[in-house]
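Action item from last week, closing it out:
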Amino acid sequence: MTLLPPSTTAMADEIREAPEAIARFFDRDLPVLRETARKLGARNPNVIVTCARGSSDNAAAYFKYLTEILMGVPVASIGPSVASLYDAPLRLQGATIVSVSQSGKSPDIVSLQAACRAAGAFAIAIVNHTDSPLAAGADAVLPLHAGEERSVAATKTFLSSAAILAALVAEWRGDESLIRATRALPEALQTALTADWSEALPVLTAASSAYVIGRGPALPIAAEAALKLKETAMLHAEAFSGAEVMHGPLQLVERGFPVIAFRPQDAAYGAMGEAVARLQGMAAKVFVAETGTPTPGRLQVTPSGHPLLDPLVMSLSFYALAEQVARARGQDPDRPSRLKKVTETL
C-alpha cells in the first residue's frame, strides 16, 4: 500500500519525481561531482561554512553531520545577515563555503557567498537554476537537475540537495561503500514511495502540536519534517535531538502527545531507543521510523544500503505522509496562504 494515492497536488507529483531527479544528476554530472571532490580534497579545509535557508538549510545541516562524522572537519552555518546587513569582515582563508539554494537568487545568500569568497574561501554552490547569481559567483556548481518545483513546499529539491551533498562527501573521502549507496539512492527512494505510514495519519490530522526527533544525520531530517508539517498542514511541530527532548521539551509531553522518531541503525541507534522508550513510558503516541518488520508504532523504512543515508529514505516516506496530513486537515499543500515559492530576503 502506498501513502501517495492518485492526487491532484503538485507536492505529491514532486515527491514521486525525487528519485528520478537524483538519478539525472548522477547520469549528467558525475564528472563534475568528482572534480569538485578532488578540488575540495586538494584544498584540505580546516573548516567549512554553509549558507542556506529553510529546507536548503536542513540539507546543509545533514551535510554538516556527514562531514564531521566522516572527515573530522568542523562545519558551521553562518547567518547570511552577517554579510548582507552587518557587512562583517570574515577570516576564511583556506576555508570552503557550501551554499544551497533552489533559486540561487536570494540577495542575502548571494551576498554571503561573495563575502566568504572575497575572504579567501573556495565556494561550492548547490543550486537548481544554474543561470542564477549564486551559480555565477561560485568556484564550483553542482546542479540539482530537479526541474520545475511548483509546490511551495520544497521536496525533490531538498532530497536532491542532500543526496548530492552526501555524494560529495563520499567522493571526497573515497568511501566506496558510501559511494555505492549514493548511486543506489534513486532505487531505494523509489521503493520508499510505497512505504505505508498511514498509521500516523489520523493522529497527526487531529493533533494541535507534535515533536519530531532524531540524532546525528537524522536530526536535520527531523527538522525538515517539522517544517513540512508547519508549512503544509498548519500543524505546530518542533524538531529536537533525541537527547535534547529529555530536557525542557519533555515537560509538554502528555498522554497521546504525537512524536515521530527517525531511528536509523547508526551509532545513535541505542541512544534513540532509550529516548523512544522514555517517551512511550510517558504515554506519548510515538511512531518510530526504522528498518525491520512493521509493527504497531513502527513505520516501514526501506534500507538505503548505508545507515548514514537511511534518513534520506525516511524523509521521502515522511513527505508522502505530510502531503496527506495537509489535505486531511483541509489545507492546500501547494499554496500555503502566507508563503510563496521564492523568498528573497536581505
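Closing note: The first strand starts at residue 48 and ends at 51.
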